[in-house]
Design brief:
Number of helices: 14
Structural class: alpha/beta
Oligomer: single chain
Strand content: 15-25%
Number of strands: 20
Distance between the termini: 47 Å
Helix content: 25-40%
Radius of gyration: 23 Å
Strand order of the largest sheet: 2-1-11-10-7-8
Length: about 450
């Protein structure tokens, strides 16, 4: 992601990687087949293979086909990664291998069916920037996806550039000369979302003093980007589904249906498939939105892109003469960047203003990622003074600051309920008024553990 000058990459300028589908099976779990070039293994719920074991780090290892073979790389895990009883930092896997993450065993085998993945040769597409294989894969996919009108679901953490993917899809589509309308489902009060989406007629509700068109009408003929689609209230989801399937909608207070020729691109920082399992997001709407899924990696998973991004942000700030030393760049590449590319851009802009002797310095690097981890730990302990840690970080954009506070609140809330119920997840879910599956997902996301399944 970047705000620099746009550079288009010809859709056919791609390299092809061919590899065989592979299977991973954690001990006690069902085998899972993968056709993705790169996956992550760990205990965090957003990992591709989730291994629920206390000795497994949240993001423990990555498995990548790099053109030579299947490369397994340990990601500075606490308890190490092993291949056939040999501890490794990184190693190419044979056709069949026994992987150990901490104390948890995972069987790896090649399935035989061939898969092809395309990688763009350039490092820019619209305002998207990256030379990592992950980003080049996305840049090769976007022009192909854009040719049709199918819905696209973009997944990724805040600050990874989901809106820029939507822009690139629109720019490479037959609707490029039509409007791109952006609607953030998290920025509007729930009771007003229907009116914002579909419009309303005069007198439809208190305050409706005239007719008003919604974003579907504004995007007619073009592309509608629905950001934070996971925040859409459950009761409105059938109406959105009808608008997508039938191409028609009704403004609030009107019985006349309107036609909507709109291509929808949606984005979320949630795992909607998990929300479907928990019953908080409609399955039919999920599959209607996720005809094509684009998954944006967080910046910490593509550190090789940071030098290019820093150079781009320096140039955009009119400070291309500012020097970035080797040690500084290494620290930037190992920083966790909880705010992702947006946070890196903010850092560069701030550091340019404060730079001395024409050099970028890491003393201007925010340590809030480390502080956030300490805060989470303190909140989970439930200390009397822990509420003081729930302070707003005004350096973050609104959505990121809000998300950080929500994470800390959820950690404290569910830590207290689990403590009160002796770790009984079912009882904690009942007291909290949510479905047990929803709580299980939250506990994995927050890295909290219950005592088991007893009722």
């Amino acid at each position: 992601m970047a705000d620099g000058p746009e550079t288009q990459v010809a859709p056919d300028v791609v390299d092809a990687l061919r590899f065989q589908r592979y299977v991973l099976a954690a001990a006690g779990g069902a085998p899972a087949s993968y056709d993705r070039r790169l996956i992550y293994l760990g205990s965090a719920p957003d990992c591709d293979l989730v291994v629920d074991d206390p000795t497994v780090s949240r993001t423990h290892a990555r498995l990548e086909f790099d053109g030579v073979g299947y490369l397994l790389r340990d990601l500075a895990s606490k308890n190490g990664t092993w291949v056939d009883n040999v501890r490794v930092r990184e190693a190419y896997l044979p056709q069949a291998a026994r992987i150990r993450l901490g104390h948890a065993e995972v069987a790896f085998s090649v399935a035989g069916e061939q898969v092809e993945v395309q990688l763009a040769r350039g490092d820019r597409l619209g305002r998207l920037i990256g030379q990592s294989a992950q980003m080049r894969e996305i840049m090769a996919l976007i022009p192909r996806v854009a040719k049709s009108d199918v819905s696209v679901l973009i997944e990724g953490e805040s600050g990874t550039g989901k809106e820029l993917v939507a822009e690139a899809v629109q720019q490479h589509s037959r609707r490029a000369d039509k409007p791109l309308v952006i609607f953030d489902c998290s920025a509007v009060a729930p009771e007003l979302i229907e009116s914002e989406l579909f419009g309303h007629v005069k007198g439809a509700f208190t305050g409706a003093v005239g007719n008003r068109e919604g974003v579907f009408a504004a995007a007619h003929g073009g592309t509608l980007f629905l950001d934070e689609i996971g925040e859409l209230p459950l009761e409105l989801q059938p109406k959105l589904l009808r608008a997508l399937e039938k191409g028609e909608y009704k403004p609030v207070g009107d019985n006349t249906r309107r036609v909507a020729d709109v291509r929808v691109v949606a984005a979320t920082n949630r795992q909607l498939d998990k929300e479907v399992e928990a019953g908080t997001f409609r399955e039919d709407l999920y599959y209607r939105l996720a005809v094509i899924k684009v998954r944006l990696p967080p910046l910490r998973q593509r550190p090789e892109d940071i030098p290019l991004l820093v150079e781009t942000f320096l140039r955009a700030a009119g400070a291309s003469e500012v020097q970035v030393g080797y040690d500084t760049m290494r620290r930037l590449q190992t920083h966790p960047w909880p705010g992702n590319v947006r946070e890196l851009k903010n850092y560069v802009e701030r550091a340019v203003v404060l730079a001395e002797h024409g050099r970028l310095e890491t003393r201007h690097l925010s340590t809030r990622g480390i502080k956030s981890e300490a805060a989470v730990a303190e909140v989970s302990r439930g200390g009397e003074d822990s509420a003081a840690l729930l302070s707003v970080d005004y350096e973050l954009p609104f959505k990121d600051a809000k998300g950080r506070l929500i994470d800390l609140f959820e950690t404290r809330y569910w830590s207290r309920l689990l403590e009160a119920t002796g770790g009984n997840v079912s009882e904690a879910a009942r007291r909290g008024g949510i479905h047990r599956k929803s709580l299980e997902y939250l506990l994995r996301k927050l890295d909290l553990r219950g005592a088991g399944d007893e009722d």
